[in-house]
Amino acid sequence: MSFDVPDDLRYRESHEWIDPETGRVGISEFAQDELGDVVFVELPGEGDAVDAGGEFGVIESIKAVSDLYAPVSGEVVAVNEALFDAPELVNDAPFGDGWMLELDFEEGDLDDLLSADEYADQIA
Amino acid sequence: MNYDQARYGDDTRNEPLLSEKDSTTVDPGAGSALPDDLTRDSLELPGLSEPELARHYTRLSQMNWSVEAGPYPLGSCTMKYNPSFADAVAADPNAAVHPDRDPETVQGNLELLHGLQEYLATIGGMDAVTLQPPAGAAGEFTGIAVAKAYHEHHGTDKSEVIIPASAHGTNFATAAMAGYDVVELPSGEDGRVDVAALEAAVSEDTAALMLTNPNTVGLFERNITEIAEVVHDAGGLLYYDGANLNALLGRARPGDMGFDIMHYNVHKTFATPHGGGGPGAGPVGVVEELAPFLPRPRVREVNAASGGDADGADASTAADGGALAGHDHGTADEAGGAAYELFDPEQSIGKVHGFSGNWLVLIRAYAYIRRLGDEGLLDASAKATLNANYLASLLDLEVPYGPFHHEFAATAGERDAADVAKGMLDYGVHPPTTKWPEMVPEAMLTEPTEVENKRSLEDLANAFNEAFADTDEELHAAPSKTASRRVDQTSAARNPRLSWHALEAARGASENASGE
Q1: N or C: which end of chain B has fewer CB within 10 A?
Q2: Residues B202-259: tens digit of each pLDDT
Q3: What is the ipTM of this complex?
Q4: CATH number at residue B447
Q5: Does some domain include residue B14?
Q6: Are B135 and B164 within one domain?
Q7: How far lies B415's CA from each of A124, B55, B210, B313, in Å?
């Protein structure tokens, strides 16, 4: 089974993605498939600071509870509150309506992340 | 074995709620002495006869599963059968005394509580025990609160509690609730604590290591004395999670291994009812140095106040009433020869529950220990381990870690453990705990307990093996013989309906949507 890995995003080994253009953060299609049906997402508030590699939230599926890790350091400028009522968006559209945060971050921090090709290799 | 669980109602709905069977509008009529704004004009109540009511609850019990219906090998939970003699003891009207009675008039009750403190201390190798915590998790919290009070009393500022990755979730919650940072310890390759990893994790910030032994896959921590030394050398305390004490009962004692604090899950080891949020008990035992910090009050023999026991109250202080300040309970002299009394440990962390804990649970644990005696308790731990090993020997599933004691984590391998568990339901058994601990892929954590005999273990093995051999399609369609069929766990988690009002609202919404 092959999963979508959009070229324009950067990835963490722990399966979070970030869009360098918008600063949006979410988890990959592979990750949502591993988790199964997502039933709960806990996210930080707007204005909170996150650290690269630090936990920024929690995602709970019928199988497991996992921590979410920030791909870069930055300030949370938007939170996808739709996930609180409809956590299934993470399953339905992990790269779209299932986004979690928008971060204000330094572009240089992206260097430590995986490219789409590198991430695709990791989950192959 | 042929099995079909009783089922009432139709395909879409089970046995109706009482209010759906018959509702009667009750009008209290005129003449109420209460003010108008405190009364209502009418009230809807179920209007059922006694036989209708009896049938309703009997049907619900038939649609349920319990250890009285068949095997219930839910690993880590220790679903022992609760013998009815203990219920009979708890139901004795003489046992029902108000907890605030003058101690002099309830000497028998105090003697029993004191006896249970002593038995638990002996079984755990501890010096002093509190019976007050109302559940296992409350016991954990109490134990770590005692550790914290101890460190603070000695002026040492500790900030961390170390917990193995395989530990029960309550350990992490306990440490966090007590205000500690949790340091998670990865399991070693053999499934046990990796002493080198522990040495790297401890520091002067280490308040305690919380450990379950045997651990959550039934493995005895062979390096326990070395582990204790590493923690103690760093100035930390060793906390024993009593969840798996059933395996060691009468054979090995946490106190002898170097543990300083432990809680007892009386519902697991001593066959009291599992709480399910109701009244339970999670006694805590500690070594002598920690006794002064235990919750108040505890029970002691009156003459113990002048003896050098480990009850934590300084004898001279107790004699002049200092340790008993704030208590109405009399000293030995005032009590006119009373043999037992309540007292407050000197540096007590305070109360974690009312009075002396949940008496009706504690009395069952006491009855169980007395009825089984030394030989019976030894027999229980022997059979718990023997049963787990015999069951595992019959399974087609692999058990990656061993040798194990009272429970084992089989792996469903390429199969989905939850699906295999659903399949097992159709064979008239309860499945094991699934997908935990995470160190075993697709884990099926199995604990038959000592109550099963050879034949029921074989029935259980058959259910495992038959379900394991079923196709994925068959498993996805299971269970088909139970009162409740496949439960939609996703909807249940996403849209929980936890009250009758929520259920009614959801029904109303769906009826409106369908235009009725």
Answers
A1: C
A2: 999 999 999 999 999 999 999 999 999 999 999 999 999 999 999 999 999 999 999 9
A3: 0.74
A4: 3.90.1150.10
A5: no
A6: yes
A7: 21, 40, 33, 57
Strands B181-185, B206-212: pairing is unpaired
- Residue B379 sits in the same domain as residue B360: no
Q: How do B160-164 and B206-212 pair as beta strands? A: parallel
Q: How many CB pairs under 8 A join A and B?
A: 17
Question: How far, rounded to the nearest angstrom, does the alpha carbon of residue B183 sit from its chain's CA centroid?
Answer: 24
In this structure, the answer to whether residues B355 and B427 fall within a common structural domain is no
Residue B76 half-sphere exposure toward CB, CA atoms < 13 A: 21
Cβ-defined contacts of B262-266 (< 8 Å, 24+)? B262/B124, B262/B126, B262/B143, B262/B286, B263/B133, B263/B136, B263/B139, B263/B140, B263/B142, B263/B143, B264/B120, B264/B123, B264/B124, B264/B139, B265/B78, B265/B136, B265/B139, B266/B361, B266/B362, B266/B364, B266/B365
Are A88 and B493 an interchain contact pair (Cβ–Cβ within 8 Å)? no
Q: State how far the Cα of B40 lies from the Cα of A2, in Å rounded to an integer.
A: 64
State the residue range of the domain holding B96: 85-304+338-369
**Residue A42 three-state SS:** strand
Residues of chain B contacting residue A60, judged by C-beta atoms under 8 Å apart: 493
Contacts of B383 (CB under 8 A, 6+ apart): B450
Residue B6 included in any domain:
no
Last residue of a domain, one of B353, B369, B385: B369
Q: What's B104's domain CATH number?
A: 3.40.640.10
| pLDDT over 60 at B458, yes or no | yes
Whether B490 sits inside 8 A of A39 (CB atoms) is yes
Q: Does B489 touch chain A (CB under 8 A)?
A: yes
Per-residue pLDDT band for A1 (boundaries 50, 70, 90) equals low
* Number of domains chain B is built from: 2
Distance from CA of B136 to the nearest CA of A (A): 23
Same structural domain, B221 and B343: yes
Q: Is residue B46 part of a domain?
A: no
Is B496 an 8 Å CB contact of chain A? no
Taking every pair of Cα atoms in chain B, the longest distance, rounded to a whole number of angstroms, is: 80
Q: Give the dihedral sign, CA A85/A90/A93/A98.
A: positive
Chain-chain contact of A62 with B490 (C-beta, under 8 angstroms): yes
| B216 shares a domain with B149 | yes
Pair B273, B150 in one domain: yes
The least confident of B313-317, B359-363, B461-465 is B313-317
Q: Contact A63/B435, CB-based, under 8 Å?
A: yes
E-only strand ranges, B313-353: 340-343
The full set of domains in chain A, from first to last, is 12-118 (2.40.50.100)
Distance, CA of B449 to CA of B274 (rounded, Å): 15
| Together in a domain, B177 and B195 | yes
Q: Are residues B357 and B400 in the same domain?
A: no
Q: Which residues of B touch A35 (CB under 8 A)?
A: none
Establish if B312 belongs to a structural domain: no
> B365: Cβ–Cβ under 8 A, 6 or more apart, which residues?
B86, B116, B266, B270, B271, B272, B281
